[in-house]
Every structure is written in structure tokens, then in C-alpha cells.
Write a structure and sequence with these properties.
Strand content: 15-25%
Radius of gyration: 23 Å
Distance between the termini: 65 Å
Number of strands: 13
CATH class of the largest domain: Alpha Beta
CATH superfamily of the largest domain: Vaccinia Virus protein VP39
Structural class: alpha/beta
Helix content: 25-40%
Number of helices: 15
Shape: globular
CATH topology of the largest domain: Rossmann fold
Length: about 375
């Protein structure tokens, strides 16, 4: 592919990404994979160049743009090397006209900016659109961090974690159960649960089980660990992962809006309940920058209502003296601090465990990409009297 043809391919892909964001369609990575599966003539350098162009464009525009061409025209007006590729040749985009409309660059949709937690300043907002580092969690059930440092001599321990390693981008992570790709922030949240051998622990929104396996590691293979979710396929993906990791995990499929019925036998039985709740994902924009285009005020309202309900579902299984750990990969206060404060107002006999003072945000902890080198997270540790 010529450089101009690569640019045209990026414009076509951006049109698909914009439409998928509007219609709740496939993720950008999936769309890119499909695009090149139908174009076998594109080599690895072509695919890499087009992908880089697409993500460069997505990161540069917070507001959902009208078209892929409008995005690339805006970038070309700031980048002469890109502008010359609009040459109208075969497989190339048409030449840019002087009065052609272009998208307006921005970091974050204007309606979201006032909703972000106060510590998310301009530098943190820019960090939200940087490339994310590659973090892994060493599985203490099967190996040690020192052993994997020998496998990956270029790795660096992550100081805020007991089992975390930071690796160069592109490092091959074998699916052998010795390590799992997991952001340092997720590892910090799992550690805040303080799961130990012999405990009964419930991961209420387990998904594919990243934090579940971290809890299993902390429990040393002893105790009862239950992973629950409303999506069958997610739990199905957890089973082989747990087997590779040497972890024993019970799974429970929940019925949406009827979760309490399936959890009734766990009333006041759990030492720890983790609620890694569905959220806007605003803390993960550096991994999924097109998620900014998917979020709407109406969708945020639905997410906030769901989080509140899940917190109420999570309270009865906690035994006296036990803890409920609430987490969201979001930097929007309605989803984080606001939810934790509202829970404490609704439920007497609960208190928040004082967080690290440097990261304290209301009754919980705020993790930030630039300051903490993690994805953006809020989490609160809530104890039952």
C-alpha cells in the first residue's frame, strides 16, 4: 500500500469506528481486525501504519466527529506530511479544498469535563490519552516475581504492588498461568480486599476473572472463592484461566435484577465482597479512546443507577466485621465518590476504611494515570460493623 492508500484506509476505518460508537457496535480493535481480514494484500507494515493513524485520530478528538475524512483533514492542516497524501491519486483521498469542513480537536467531550473528579487536572486529562503501559501480575500460586524477572530481564517491579511487573510494549505473555496481564490499579484494588486463606470471598461482577484470580492468589488456594456475573460467556472464559492458574473458583450465573435470589444462601457469610461495577470506563480511555464517543448523558444515568443497585445487592452477603470493596474504572465522581457516599447514607452500621492520604478522595481512593501510573480508578473499602 502507498502512504496515500494507507491514509484512505484509515479514513474508511474511522467512518466505521464513528458509526459503531454511535450505534453501540464493535470496538475499534475488532473493526480493524475485520477490515484487514478482508484485505489480505495489506502487509504487516501497512496494518501497523493504518492502525497508528486511526488511533492517532481517535485520541485527538474528544467530541464524536462527523466523519473520518473530517478528522484526517483537521490533522492534515497541522501536519504537512499528512496533507500531501491527499493527492487524489488512485486509492488515495481526494485533495483538500480550502473551505472543506474539519473536526475540532479536543481531549474530552465538553459535557463530561465538569463531571470529572477535581484532582483530574489538565495534565491528568492529557495522560488519559497517552499509550498505556504493559503491566502483568505474577501468579503467586505457581511462581514468584523473582522467577519471572529471570524470564523477562527487561521487566521492572511495580512498587505499589506485591506481584506486579511492568514490561516493554510488545512483550509476549504466554497463556501458561504464571502471569496475567493486569493493570497496576486493578492489582491495588484486589490487594485492598485483603483476601486471606480460609476466607469466603465473593467477586460479584467477576467478568472474565482478572481480579478473581488475583484474589485466589492472595488466598493461597485455601478458602471459598465465588465468581458471579450476569454474562455466561464471561464466566466460561474464567474457567480455563482458573485451571491454568491453579485456582479453585466457584462460578454463579446471575439473573439481571434478580441477583439477590441466587445469592440468598450467602447472607452474612462472606468475609469480602468485591463489586468491580460496570462503569463508563473513563479511567481506561488510554486503552479504549473511542469510548469517549460512546458515552452519553443517558447512558451514564443508566450506569449510575445500576451501580447503586449492585451496591445494595452486595451488602447482605457481608458478615459482621467483613468488608465490601467497591471499584470503578472511572474518574467521574457520580460513579465513584458519589456512589460510596450515597451507600454510607443508605446503610447504617457501615464505615469507610481510611485510604492512603495521598490518594484520598472522599471515603475512597482515586488512582490517576499520570500520578500513579495506573488506569484511572476509584475504589472504597467499606466495613460492616
Amino acid at each position: 500500500m502507498t502512504p496515500s492508500a494507507r491514509l484512505q484506509a484509515a479514513i474508511e476505518l474511522l467512518d466505521q469506528v464513528i458509526a459503531a460508537a454511535r450505534d453501540d457496535g464493535a470496538a475499534a480493535d475488532t473493526l480493524i481486525a475485520r477490515y484487514f481480514a478482508e484485505r489480505r494484500y495489506a502487509g504487516s507494515k501497512d496494518r501497523r501504519a493504518v492502525r497508528d493513524l486511526v488511533y492517532r485520530a481517535v485520541r485527538a478528538f474528544g467530541e464524536p466527529p462527523t466523519s473520518g475524512r473530517a478528522v484526517m483533514v483537521a490533522l492534515a492542516r497541522r501536519d504537512g506530511e499528512l496533507a500531501v497524501l491527499f493527492d487524489g491519486s488512485r486509492h488515495a483521498p481526494a485533495m483538500i479544498t480550502p473551505d472543506e469542513p474539519a473536526a475540532e480537536p479536543s481531549l474530552i467531550p465538553a459535557w463530561i469535563e465538569p463531571l470529572l473528579a477535581a484532582p483530574v487536572d489538565e495534565d491528568e486529562r492529557r495522560a488519559l490519552l497517552d499509550r498505556a503501559p504493559l503491566h502483568v501480575r505474577v501468579n503467586a500460586l505457581r511462581t514468584t516475581r523473582d522467577a519471572l524477572l529471570a524470564r523477562w530481564p527487561e521487566a521492572e517491579p511495580i512498587p505499589a504492588t506485591a506481584h506486579g511487573l511492568s514490561l516493554p510494549e510488545g512483550t509476549n505473555i504466554e497463556a501458561d498461568g504464571l502471569a496475567e496481564v493486569q493493570d497496576a490499579g486493578s492489582q491495588i484494588i484486589a490487594a485492598a480486599c485483603e483476601a486471606r486463606s480460609g476466607m469466603t470471598v465473593l467477586d460479584l461482577c467477576a467478568g472474565a476473572g482478572g481480579k478473581t484470580l488475583a484474589l485466589a492468589s492472595d488466598m493461597g488456594g485455601e478458602g471459598r472463592l465465588i465468581a458471579a456475573d450476569t454474562v455466561r460467556d464471561r464466566l466460561a472464559r474464567l474457567v480455563p484461566r482458573a485451571q491454568r492458574a491453579g485456582a479453585t473458583v466457584e462460578t454463579r450465573l446471575l439473573n439481571p435484577n434478580r441477583e439477590a435470589e441466587v445469592l440468598a444462601d450467602l447472607a452474612a457469610a462472606c468475609d469480602v465482597v468485591l463489586v468491580d461495577a460496570p462503569c463508563s470506563g473513563s479511567g481506561t480511555w488510554r486503552r479504549n479512546p473511542e469510548a469517549r464517543w460512546r458515552l452519553t448523558p443517558e447512558r451514564l444515568d443508566r450506569i449510575v443507577a445500576l451501580q447503586s443497585r449492585l451496591l445494595d445487592v452486595a451488602a447482605p452477603p457481608v458478615k459482621s466485621g467483613g468488608r465490601l470493596v467497591f471499584a470503578v474504572c472511572s474518574l467521574i465522581d457520580r460513579e465513584g465518590r458519589g456512589q460510596a457516599e450515597a451507600f454510607l447514607e443508605r446503610h447504617s452500621g457501615w464505615r469507610s476504611v481510611p485510604p492512603n492520604s495521598a490518594q484520598c478522595h472522599g471515603p475512597g481512593t482515586l488512582l490517576l494515570p499520570r500520578r500513579d501510573n495506573t488506569d484511572g480508578f476509584f475504589f472504597a473499602v467499606l466495613e460492616k460493623a
